[in-house]
Design a protein that fits this description.
CATH class of the largest domain in chain B: Mainly Alpha
Strand content of chain A: under 5%
CATH architecture of the largest domain in chain B: Orthogonal Bundle
Keywords (chain A): Cell membrane, Membrane, Sugar transport, Transmembrane, Transmembrane helix, Transport
Membrane topology (chain A): Multi-pass membrane protein
Subcellular location (chain A): Cell membrane
InterPro entries (chain A): BP-dep_ABC_trans_perm, MetI-like, MetI-like_sf
Pfam family, one (chain A): BPD_transp_1
Radius of gyration of chain A: 24 Å
Helix content of chain A: over 70%
Strand content of chain B: under 5%
Radius of gyration of chain B: 30 Å
Oligomer: heterodimer
Order of helices and strands of chain A: HHHHHHHHHHHHH
Largest sheet of chain B: none
CATH superfamily of the largest domain in chain A: MetI-like
Number of domains of chain A: 2
CATH topology of the largest domain in chain A: MetI-like fold
Distance between the termini of chain B: 38 Å
Amino acid sequence: MGKSGKIFTSVLVWVFLIGTSLFVVYPLVYVAAAAFSPQQNIASLSIIPFGNGVTIKNFIYLFQKTDFPLWFRNTLIVAVATTVSTVFICALSAYVFSRFRFVFKKSLMMSLLILQIFPSFVGMVAIYVILLRIGGLNTLWGLVLVYLAGNIPYNTWMVKSYMDTVSKSLDEAARIDGAGHFQIFAKVILPVSRPIIVLLTITSFIAPWMDFIFPKLVLRSSNVQTIAQGLFGFVTEKKNMFATFSAGSLIIAIPFIIYFIVTQKTLITSLSGAAVKE
Amino acid sequence: MELKTDGSSEKKVRVTAILFMGLGHILYFKEYLKGSIYALIELVTLCLIPFWANKIYGLITLGSPHPELPVKQRDNSMFMMIDGILVIAVLLIVIAVYVVSVKGAMAEYKEFCRNGSLNRKKAFISGKAFPIAGLAPALILMLVFVVVPLVFSACVAFTNYASPEHIPPNNLVDWVGFTNFTDMFGGNAAWTGAFGRVAVWTLIWAVLATATCFFGGFVLAAVLNECRIRIKPVFRSIFILPYAVPAIVSMLVWKNLLNGSFGIVNRTLMEIGLINNPIPWLSDAGLCRFICVLVNLWAGFSYFMLLTMGNMTAISSDIYEAAKIDGASPLYMFRKITFPLVLFQTMPLIIMGFTHNINNFGAIYFLTSGLPEAADSAVTSAGSTDILVTWIYNLTMDLQKYNYAAVLAVVIFVVMAPFAILSFRQTKSYKEGEL
């Protein structure tokens, strides 16, 4: 390849990378601009980012005039509870599947795999009726139960596949030292499976922040709403409070963005790791 | 009770174990605790037979009309259906426990034949019961919140549970056989037309959405991997952004930016003078579908980029060295080594991405809400960008046509099951013959 050819290629690469970056950043810039804009409606938002001037009144409005802090608290409770219970139950079941032989093992594993393909809201009418019967409607724990149950099939399978790669000699060593099954699980297998547990923690923590269907189904009264419901309510067909919506979105998105950028290296290995392990 | 160690008492053990749950354990193996727990389970089940029968009878009839009673005391068909399904699930578990107890007794006897004596070292709770105790919470939760709802959905597909005439508790719901299916697949012009349209678009959407995201992510990963730009990490961080932003946020933002009359995109284009009239991004059916795929590419390529990056670095450098010695050009190596290897590695996840996109509620609902309207939208509530799952959502939440929603759920099951089996056969445990 000649010198001019090389320059041509590198110009092409730069143009491609910068063009893609612009495409990626484009909507995000307007979220930031709208969040600090004095104009509430998208129709009056300047087409030049930050062209309307900068103000923090949207954030003040968000915290003082709307239920945003309450939504945040509710979502946080749901996310933490879902994560803790999902990690514990999935890891424990995965350990059992990985290390024990028992009757019906094959059929149970097969059913996990079949169940994980369904979006859980296919059965949403039934979930509604069941929660109604056990008093879980309009409560945060009802929502946690739904999320937890929906998380089990796929994640159990995923963690199980990882645990299969952990050498069984570790178990043997611990057993010789007199450890029981639960001790082996908690003190030996769980620490060794850390990468997959971290991935599981992240995915089950993030999901509740984005989900809309189940909060809408389960949480009807205004004091138990979650972030997604609240944000969605700002930009309906009837009203357009794009600035307030953007301010709220920014508060949610920024922690995630920071987290993903900081951990991108680990993310790459754990994502592709999950691919290889399966 | 004496057993012979030569295996001749096998029949005796089996008959006793089948006769009453746990009997074998108590009589032959002196496992009194285990045996009495089994026996207790069977005893309780037998005592509750009238209760079980009543609930199952309710499931069959779905209640009888009592117009004279106040609404609250009338039979609620949906409660009866849920109860009936739950009861059947519980009974199946009892049967499963029965099978486990018999098999356990047989295994115990084989052990006895081998050792010639009873082996009593095993502690009950930490020993064989550990798998049961460990799986119980997961299984119960899945049964109540995943399996029963799915079975319920499948059952609703065979009822007339729909607004306005058949909504409990005011009215009863009845079994109607395959009526809903025939309506959907040919019987009723409006519904059949809507179904055909939505089903075809769901498939096109899932294929395009997955393919664009995979190739987009793959190209970016390859470029970032090959180029020697010093600020590579900056670009990589930018490209991760869409993955980090919650989908509900990014889709609603795009929806507002692309709004036909006051969206930023149209106003910018008009300001620059590229167009004179606003482009109907989200109100023209064809264009809107294209936008759906494009915006989904924006939101979804990061995931595949990260995935391919990980797999590219995992390819052993020996292969490249060998190819270089053979005089292969970089492009040739990319085509013959990198691409096939990465594709092979990510295949299971591409399949999963495809199933994910078939069910990708957020990408459609928050961006277009299924709009623009099609000719039959007023009746069926299916817009021209609605996919099966968003249609199910509309049917459930807006129209309350639960019966048709359930038919669609069954369709999704039939479409997805092959993929489940396919990904099952891809797994390591299947290939190594463990299962």
